[in-house]
Specification:
The complex is a heterodimer of chains A (317) and B (296).
Chain A lengths: L1 H4 L13 H10 L6 H24 L17 H5 L9 H34 L3 H15 L2 H14 L8 H27 L2 H8 L4 H30 L2 H5 L9 H9 L5 H28 L9 H10 L4
Helix pairs in contact in A: 5-8, 5-10, 5-12, 6-8, 8-10, 9-10, 10-13, 12-13
Chain B lengths: L5 H28 L2 E2 L6 E2 L10 H8 L8 H32 L4 H9 L6 H12 L4 H8 L14 H25 L3 H9 L4 H12 L1 H16 L3 H6 L8 H11 L3 H34 L1
Antiparallel strand pairs in B: 1-2
Helix pairs in contact in B: 1-13, 2-13, 3-7, 3-10, 7-10, 8-9, 10-13, 12-13
Classes of the chains: A mainly alpha (317), B mainly alpha (296).
Chain lengths: 317, 296
């Protein structure tokens, strides 16, 4: 262990090195401790986050520019300005509600559907089950553009009773997010195993009771992560919302941001996008708290880190 | 203890959903791509039965991919952009994932959270931030002028291929780092210790042990970001908006939204998906394998 983690250390020298020794080591071998890696990593983190922070900062700009800072105004572009703020501009306000509507409906439909599909696929055996599993994996690997084009064409030529619009957008979002729910829930299903339900059955529970009283409560953390994931996917989605859009009445926040960026955007667009960031971040905060309290007393199966990468990244190689 | 019909019954609604809204729509693309064009209104007339299929539009579109033809340069440009963006993402992303997985001790938690953070900021928000930064009087140009690196900074946002590649890297790199990190985290440290005990230098232990063991992770993560990059049209539109930097995705977008020629657009979509089928198959096999391991 020590050979890898403390490569620069002198063998047998266990005392905390003084500043002088540290400096001498640094000069003798500047790359001994992976300093290059430290610099690259923090540089990446800064580059990936600072632009967003700057964009959020400009949503508080007192002036009309998104590039020149003209003083701080907390509310102007959110609801203060009577004509151009998110609250006052009907296009921006509508985009916000449209995004919320799609995300809400997507959560309500995709989560139960995905949980059921995950349970079914994990336990159903046979050729049909394998084929279904195969179909389930497709949406995970299909570029969004292809799903957008194919859904656009299916509503144009086959399911003609559905016009492009909110319904079509919801159907598209559910199709797109369903498989992520399956992947999350299935992981949890395998880590639970069958023994709890078998114990319940031995103790006289009916199948319905062991599903409802044993399996469902055990699945709740995964159901919760799925809800979060679906929310994030739906809010983030641009391509499918755009291809199934009915025009400006169906604009979501990403579409609004997309179409304003090339023009001369006002800080209100930054404010609109920033609102979504606040929403997701507070949702994660709540999720984290819920997970923390619901997992108390439960032994950590795979270690918290793996769990975090899996639940937050949503997929895992 | 459960009735045998129960599990199929659980799966049926979801499977039906995917058949109706994933498989049938894909068939719609095929039907339109092999369909005809109404001679008067110029709109597509899909053919649903394979016996009626007309190959005109698909053959014409395929011919467009031959050297010197309509789509040739777009295809080359798309491939080059994706290749450079992928290489750039790996060159930056691998060290980051490696450091977080292997060396960050006290800072691991916070670094993980910071690396995951972009996942929760929508793609368009990040692009908006990027465009603000690179706009003619944005921070980047102000810095370049202030530091006397350039007196007249370049126009980043009008047909600049470098901006498109940078935009792609900035947009997709979080999706690369996370799976890489998970793959690197899974490498058994005792293998490395064995290599070091047997006399390998840190560099050769990395080259002969860590790198080969992380190869599936590198391939998987590359596929994860290469697939959406090939279907991207919004990033070039946002950071460049010029036909000089248009990618295959832009061509498809134009055929549907610009001048409506759905049959050509559908043919292009079909050709693109055939082209990407190899990548998709690779990724699906990896997921299926991971699931098998999970099940065992």
């Amino acid at each position: 262990m020590s050979a890898i983690t403390e490569r620069g250390a002198v063998p047998g020298h266990f005392a905390e090195p003084t500043l002088g020794t540290k400096l001498r080591r640094l000069i003798a071998n500047p790359w001994g401790h992976p300093r290059g890696l430290v610099i690259i990593t923090w540089l990446y983190v800064v580059i990936s986050i600072v632009p967003v922070v700057v964009a959020i900062q400009f949503s508080f700009n007192a002036g009309r520019s998104v590039t020149a800072w003209q003083g701080f105004d907390l509310t102007k572009w959110y609801f203060g300005d009577p004509a151009y703020s998110v609250w006052a501009d009907p296009r921006l306000q509508h985009a916000f509600w449209q995004s919320m509507k799609l995300a809400g409906l997507d959560m309500v439909i995709a989560t139960p559907l995905g949980v059921m599909l995950a349970i079914g696929l994990a336990r159903w055996r046979g050729a049909l089950a394998n084929a279904s599993n195969f179909i389930m994996l497709f949406p995970l690997v299909t570029p969004e553009l292809m799903m957008g084009v194919s859904l656009f064409l299916v509503f144009l030529y086959i399911f003609k009773f559905i016009q492009p619009g909110t319904t079509a957008q919801v159907l598209g979002h559910v199709t797109f997010s369903l498989s992520y729910v399956v992947v999350i829930v299935r992981g949890r299903l395998f880590s639970i195993g069958k023994s709890y339900e078998e114990a319940a059955a031995d103790l006289g529970a009916t199948p319905w009771e062991s599903l409802r009283l044993v399996l469902l409560p055990l699945l709740l953390p995964a159901v919760f992560s799925s809800l979060m994931m679906v929310f994030a996917i739906s809010i983030d989605d641009f391509v499918i919302s755009q291809w199934l859009s009915c025009g400006s009445a169906c604009d979501t926040v990403p579409i609004r941001v997309y179409s304003s960026t090339r023009g001369a955007p006002l800080p209100s667009v930054n404010a609109l996008a920033a609102l979504m960031v606040y929403m997701t971040l507070s949702a994660i905060g709540i999720a984290w708290l819920v997970m923390r309290f619901s997992n108390r007393g439960e032994r950590k199966a795979e270690g918290a880190r793996g769990g975090m990468v899996q639940t937050m990244g949503g997929f895992d190689m | 203890m459960y009735p045998r019909w129960l599990w199929p019954a659980f799966a049926v609604p979801g499977v039906l959903w995917l058949i109706l809204l994933f498989l049938v729509p894909f068939y719609a693309v095929i039907g339109v791509a092999f369909g005809g064009v109404d001679p008067i209104f110029m709109n597509a007339v899909p053919n649903w039965s394979p016996t009626d299929w007309q190959f005109d539009s698909i053959v014409t579109t395929l011919k467009g991919f031959l050297p010197g033809n309509q789509y040739w340069s777009v295809m080359i440009r798309t491939t080059v952009y994706v290749a450079i963006a992928l290489a750039g993402s790996l060159l930056l992303g691998y060290p980051v994932a490696y450091y977080i997985s292997r060396h960050a001790k006290k800072t691991k938690g916070i670094l993980l959270a910071l690396v995951v953070l972009p996942f929760w900021v929508s793609y368009m928000m990040r692009m908006l931030a990027w465009v603000n930064l690179f706009s003619p009087n944005g921070f980047i140009n102000k810095f370049l002028v202030w530091s006397h690196i350039m007196t007249t900074p370049p126009d980043w946002l009008n047909g600049n291929p470098g901006s498109v590649v940078l935009g792609l890297i900035y947009g997709y790199i979080p999706y690369l780092i996370l799976p890489l990190l998970a793959a690197l985290d899974r490498i058994d440290r005792s293998v490395l210790e064995a290599a070091r005990d047997l006399g390998a230098s840190p560099a050769s232990a990395f080259y002969h042990v860590t790198l080969p063991l992380s190869k599936p992770g590198i391939l998987g993560a590359s596929v994860i970001i290469a697939l959406p990059m090939f279907g991207d049209y919004y990033t070039p539109n946002i950071v460049s908006g010029s036909p000089k930097t248009s990618m295959l995705g832009n061509q498809i977008d134009i055929f549907f939204h610009g001048g409506p020629q759905p049959s050509v657009g559908a043919a292009l979509t079909l050709i693109l998906s055939m082209f990407l089928a190899v990548l998709m198959a690779y990724y699906m096999v990896t997921i299926a394998k991971a699931q098998k391991e999970l099940q065992a």
